[in-house]
Amino acid sequence: MSLWILFRQWAVKNLSALNSKNLLMVLLGYILLSWLLLKLAGEHAMTDSFTNYIYYLFVTASTVGYGDMSPTTSAGKWIVSLLVIPGGLGVFAVGVGRVASLFLQYWKSGLQGKRSVNVKNHILVLGWNEQRTLHLIKMLQHEESGRRPIVLCVRPEIENPLPGEIEFVRVASFTDQEGMARASVEEASCILIDNPEDDITLSAALFCASKNPQAHLLAYFKDEGLGLLLKQHCPNAECIPSVAVEMLAKAAVDPGSSELHHELLSTTQGMTQYSVHYPQNAEATTIDALFIAFKQRYDATLIGIDCGQGVELNPALNKAVQPGCKLFYISDERITDFQW
């Protein structure tokens, strides 16, 4: 069997699929064959220097053609005309296309949530409720601007609803080890679960608590009983129940209550409720002193306190405030420069 037949069989077998490995082999073969033929043709100016030779190939293959280097012999001109230019154009076009395809695939995988996110100390949002989730993320972005990144992790087959603004991961389930690892669940500082199905919310909360017990875990439940069940297994979890019925009843008895609650919860307009910890190195004080200081210095209203026994709204003015207590207040914006 002739060498040509053997070479053709090998080429068909190994180069029929032009993957990255085969493309690299074709490129190296093109470079070596062109150099050898130009060397034999006596084109010493282009072949005696590796830098000059590679420079000439790139300029030729990319069709830039500066003209500062060109073949001088007849054989060299034929080699360039029949091999270097056509072969270079083909290899260059395929190479650029392959690189562009890789970049496009990388971008597409991120848009589809197939890529791992490289973040720490982030807010991980689990669940997808369409406009409700988008509204939630917008409020978090307003609060966390320049602070913690936001990662949205969903199960439905959707693409990133806010590309360029948040990180996005799609998983088969919220208990999938590999999928949740791509969302960096163990590195999150806050995990917020808001899923349409309460049973999935419960299983996701238990999984996240086992993977990251130090994170601030919040879970929204329509069924308050499941929230109580989660608290039994994860005492540090914060369960947010549905208050739609209570809001209706309150608004019926005290008209305007729904607008008041909406104003307190909205982070983008009007007065909003915030919280802050009384510093550990500060001296004990009273609600009376803090209430006046909040109002006079920051035009804020102190409305509650939590010293470890639960939230107490509208505390007595003589109530003691110990270091480490959490204070709740109403203000136009979050106060970041308290002067205690």
Topology:
Blueprint: H1 3-15, H2 20-40, H3 44-47, H4 50-61, H5 74-111, E1 123-126, H6 131-144, E2 150-154, E3 167-170, H7 177-182, E4 190-193, H8 198-211, E5 216-221, H9 224-233, E6 238-241, H10 244-253, H11 257-265, E7 272-277, E8 285-286, H12 287-298, E9 301-306, E10 311-313, E11 320-321, E12 326-331
Parallel strand pairs: 1-2, 1-4, 2-3, 4-5, 5-6
Antiparallel strand pairs: 7-12, 8-11, 9-10, 9-12
Helix pairs in contact: 2-5, 4-5, 8-9
Please tell me about this protein's structure.
This protein has 340 residues and is α/β, with parallel strands linked by helices. Helices cover 48% and strands 15% of the residues. The chain has helices at 3-15, 20-40, 44-47, 50-61, 74-111, 131-144, 177-182, 198-211, 224-233, 244-253, 257-265, 287-298; strands spanning 123-126, 150-154, 167-170, 190-193, 216-221, 238-241, 272-277, 285-286, 301-306, 311-313, 320-321, 326-331. A hairpin with a 4-residue loop joins strand 9 (301-306) and strand 10. Helix 2 (20-40) packs antiparallel against helix 5, helix 4 crosses helix 5 (74-111) and helix 8 (198-211) runs parallel beside helix 9 (224-233).
- How would a textbook summarize the main sheet? 6 strands, parallel
Low-confidence parts, pLDDT < 50 over ≥5 residues?
none
The count of β-strands is 12
Apparent shape: elongated
CA radius of gyration is 33 Å
Search tags:
alpha/beta; 12 strands; 340 residues; 12 helices
